[in-house]
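Pasting as-is:
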Amino acid sequence: MYSITILRVEDYPKWKDNFDSEESKDARRAVGEESYQIFRTVDDPNTFVLLNEWEDEEKARGFLKSENLRELQQHSGVLGEPDMYLFGEVEKGSI
């Protein structure tokens, strides 16, 4: 199970420090986050896409809708309401 979140923040280094904090890591571990990747837009360093891999769909859904996540986002300078999507892998390949 994967989630994609599109975010805009006040200041990327501030957001990243919060994302890397033990509080944030503990919250994400507790709901089964397995890995993440961060992609920044070319034109705006404060707009980026966060790709997370989760071990359990139900836990991921709960976390993405949680007040805990909203508080973490607010504290880290997230602007507006992020766009969040859940995906299940259909196929993986390479060429």
